[in-house]
Amino acid sequence: MRVYMLKREQHLNISLDHAWAFFSSAENLQAITPSYMNFTITNSPGELIYGGQLITYKVSPLLSIPLTWVTEITQVVDHSYFIDEQRFGPFKLWHHQHHFTETDKGVKMTDIVHYSLPFSFIGRLAHSITIKSRLEEIFEYRYKTLEETFNG
Description:
This protein is of the alpha+beta class. The chain has one domain (4-151): Alpha-D-Glucose-1,6-Bisphosphate, Chain A, domain 4 (2-Layer Sandwich). The chain has helices spanning 16-23, 120-151; strands spanning 4-12, 40-41, 54-59, 67-77, 81-88, 93-103, 106-116. A seven-stranded antiparallel beta sheet has the order 1-7-6-5-4-3-2, covered by helices on one side. It starts with a strand and ends with a helix. The relative contact order is 0.23.
């Protein structure tokens, strides 16, 4: 199984409290996800993030084909980091770390995603042809949206 990694850092001109409140609320995911993905939360995860929390989505990452995606919040350290892992969905492995560090200019946010695709050779081929660039595009959209929202 091939495991890929995507890492992004961004500085936001907001307080740690504001960053934590925004990013730890699943309800804000739709605002930072490209509209073509038709991202919709299908359960009511609640406002407070906690370990063991399940969040269910419908999402169309490729060819407008809707998929069900279930993630679990596996670890939470208040105002420091949280981790979500896929329990059901398009990836063989999805482990997404969200880190928040207070700086003299606001907050440094770091995303680290480890992921793997199903179907061995076909998955690796799909990664090189489209999946890698699609994930980079999604995180670039997120970066730009957050820049406009918090640093604009």
